[in-house]
Amino acid sequence: MSNKKKRNTAAFPKEVGAETEQADPAEEGVDRIREILMGGKTREIEKRFSRLEERLRSESGELRQEIRSRFDEIESYVRQEIESVGSNLRKEQEKREEDDQRVVSDLTAAREALKAAISSLEDRAENGLRDLRQKLLAQSKSLMDEVQTKHESLTAQVHSDLADVRFAKTDRSALAALLTDVAVRLNEDPESD
Questions:
Q1: ∠ CA 187-190-191 to the nearest 5 degrees?
Q2: Exposure string (b/e) for 122-158, b if CB count within 10 Å is 16 or more?
Q3: Residues 9 and 65 sit within 8 Å (Cβ to Cβ)
Q4: Alpha helices (H) along the chain
Q5: What is the DSSP letter of 15?
Q6: Which of 23, 51, 109, 113 has CB 3.0 to 4.6 Å from 27, enough for a Cys bridge?
Q7: Is 47 exposed, middle or buried (0-12, 13-18, 19+ CB in 10 A)?
Q8: Would you say 12 and 56 are in contact if contact means Cβ atoms under 8 Å apart?
Q9: Residue-wise pLDDT tens digits, 4-44
Q10: pLDDT in tens, 133-190
């Protein structure tokens, strides 16, 4: 821009001169007076403007560079943070998957242990029932044998007692017959006397 300004300032007198050729002489005189009175100040102002413009251009370039540098730093920081967050999320996801697998494994092991325990309890219950049936069968057989033995013993006793009673009864009837016979004889004997 300073080159443009220099061109403009360098071209200013020419343009003014060019205008003066076209403009009326009164204006031309006013321009010359203005040039004489303000020419040095105008050049000084133009130099100041050019230095200011140069300084602004330099500072804006530095500022642009600093902003670009800071944006790069921010971009780098944001990328690092995104990568860090992504890494943390991946680790957490992996940890959750491992935890899920561990829980599934634990549940599977617990299910298998429960199945084994149920199977064992069923086997023990079945064996217990089988043993109980065998014991009941053995006890019922023993009781049946004992009842049979008692029955046979009691039947033999009853038969023996019945035989004794019959024998005793027979003896009574024999005794009664004998006594009757004796009585008849006794009765007959006195008659024979």
A1: 90
A2: eeeeeeeeeeeeeeeeeeeeeeeeeeeeeeeeeeeee
A3: no
A4: 2-22, 25-192
A5: H
A6: 23
A7: middle
A8: no
A9: 444 444 444 444 444 445 557 888 888 788 777 777 777 78
A10: 898 888 888 888 888 888 888 788 878 877 777 776 666 777 777 788 888 888 875 5
